[in-house]
């Protein structure tokens, strides 16, 4: 799958994200630029991934800087901010994991990361151009 993303570009990326987002249990899909971590494309409900405690701490930070909640563009602004925060966390996680792999064996490379919690699982596929992230419900044991 990762090779398809590299060879055919944006159309295949969009098709892949669309296909993955329709799978049962998938909450969201995100494609990031591999070098910068910039969000290229999102699908699904990213706001459902973060807890209200995490979101309210972001709001209190915003209020302390003098911006009021009414100044924001509503749910779309919080969705965008949530996506950017999640993208930054995942990008840092992938960078750290890649560094670990390089420290273990300089001839090896990171191929897949799975991060499972009680509530959800993140599957991260690093590609030469993209980081493909699929967030889905954790299947019952």
TrEMBL record:
SUPFAM superfamilies: Roadblock/LC7 domain (SSF103196). Residues 48-67 have a biased composition (Low complexity). Coiled coil: none annotated. Residues 48-79 are annotated as: Disordered. Gene3D superfamilies: Dynein light chain 2a, cytoplasmic. Residues 13-136 form the Roadblock/LAMTOR2 domain. InterPro entries: Roadblock/LAMTOR2_dom. Belongs to the GAMAD family. This is Roadblock/LAMTOR2 domain-containing protein. The lineage of its organism: Eukaryota, Fungi, Dikarya, Ascomycota, Pezizomycotina.
